[in-house]
């Protein structure tokens, strides 16, 4: 079984500041890793994913995440945030070679202040 | 992008009644659909996985007879909460996977159920 820990339930930052949202996972098998974003009153949207290959993955809106197998982490980073990045961010894992089931963390509420 | 809708977006029902929630993939065919439940400030918890034309696979601890799932077509899955009780009040979210091998689920906006 897998589990996901998002240590920070809320992260307030100022606009144009860098941000890191932490995600650690636990699994006895190899995993795929995902970050989803949920804007107010909207459904979850895939932000980025790691399936294989380069451990650094990027999204189209400037976020990046790096898979660190030794630390079982998949932290999400952005060098300069915008007001529009305010949302709830969920880290999730699924097992390689298994079903497509996702196991989610509890989410991190990112609030970008002017 | 791929769009998944849910109906209704919110519903209030009396204890003992049943409520049906629909999940539709609007612009793609979904070989697999998932139903999640989310409590306030908690993670999404997978309730069941459904494949078109077959019985749903329920997660441990989820009552099959209480949460009836039907995946009648490649674009529609329904979740019926039978004999609802106040403890069933929650946010129910569905997702759909096109089965392209991209391992990407598209999520609906969710349905807020309140049982009085």
Summary keywords:
heterodimer, A: 114 residues, mainly beta, six-stranded mixed sheet, 52% strand, B: 116 residues, 0% helix
Account of the 3D structure:
The complex is a heterodimer of chains A (114) and B (116). Chain A has strands at residues 3-5, 10-14, 19-21, 24-26, 31-38, 45-50, 56-58, 64-68, 73-78, 87-95, 103-104, 108-113. Chain A has 114 residues and is mostly beta strands. In chain A, the strands form three sheets. In chain A, strands 2, 5, 6, 10, 11 and 12 form a six-stranded mixed beta sheet that branches. A four-stranded antiparallel beta sheet of chain A has the order 3-9-8-7, with no helix packed on it. A two-stranded antiparallel sheet of chain A has the order 1-4. The model of chain A has no long low-confidence stretch (mean pLDDT 93). In chain B, the strands form two sheets. In chain B, strands 2, 4, 5, 6, 9, 10 and 11 form a seven-stranded mixed beta sheet that branches. Chain B is globular. At the A-B interface, strand 6 and strand 11 of A face strand 5, strand 9 and strand 10 of B.
Quick gist of this model?
Chain A is mainly beta. Chain A has no helices and 12 strands.
* Strands of chain B, count: 11
| Overall 3D form of chain B | globular
The computed structural class of chain B is mainly beta
The N- to C-terminal Cα distance of chain B equals 37 Å
Mean pLDDT of chain A: 93
Biggest interface found: A-B, 23 and 21 residues
Major sheet size, sense and barrel closure of chain B: 7 strands, mixed
Q: Share of helix among residues of chain B?
A: under 10%
Low-pLDDT segments, ≥5 res of chain A: none
SSE diagram, text form:
The complex is a heterodimer of chains A (114) and B (116).
Chain A: E1 3-5, E2 10-14, E3 19-21, E4 24-26, E5 31-38, E6 45-50, E7 56-58, E8 64-68, E9 73-78, E10 87-95, E11 103-104, E12 108-113
Parallel strand pairs in A: 2-12
Antiparallel strand pairs in A: 1-4, 3-9, 5-6, 5-10, 7-8, 8-9, 10-11, 10-12
Chain B: E1 4-7, E2 10-13, E3 19-25, E4 32-38, E5 44-51, E6 57-58, E7 67-73, E8 76-81, E9 90-97, E10 106-107, E11 111-115
Parallel strand pairs in B: 2-11
Antiparallel strand pairs in B: 1-3, 3-8, 4-5, 4-9, 5-6, 7-8, 9-10, 9-11
């Amino acid at each position: 079984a897998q589990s996901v820990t998002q240590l920070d339930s809320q992260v307030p930052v100022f606009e144009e500041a860098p941000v890191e949202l932490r995600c650690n996972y636990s699994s006895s098998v190899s995993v795929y890793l995902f970050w989803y974003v949920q804007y107010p009153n909207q459904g979850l949207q895939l932000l980025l994913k790691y399936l294989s290959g380069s451990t650094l993955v990027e999204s189209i809106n400037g976020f990046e995440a790096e898979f660190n197998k030794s630390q079982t982490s998949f932290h999400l980073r952005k060098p300069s945030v915008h007001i529009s990045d305010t949302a709830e961010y969920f880290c999730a894992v699924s097992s390689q070679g298994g079903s497509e089931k996702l196991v989610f963390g509890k989410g991190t509420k990112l609030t970008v202040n002017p | 992008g791929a769009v998944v809708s849910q109906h209704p977006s919110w519903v209030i029902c009396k204890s003992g009644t049943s409520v049906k929630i629909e999940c539709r993939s609007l612009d793609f065919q979904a070989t697999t659909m998932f139903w999640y439940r989310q409590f306030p400030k908690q993670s999404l918890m997978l309730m069941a996985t459904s494949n078109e034309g077959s019985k749903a696979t329920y997660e441990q601890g989820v009552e099959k007879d209480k949460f009836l799932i039907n995946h009648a077509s490649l674009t529609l899955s329904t979740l019926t909460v039978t004999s609802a009780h106040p403890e069933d009040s929650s946010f129910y979210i569905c997702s759909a996977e096109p089965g392209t091998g991209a391992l990407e689920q598209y999520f609906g906006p969710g349905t807020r159920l309140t049982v009085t």
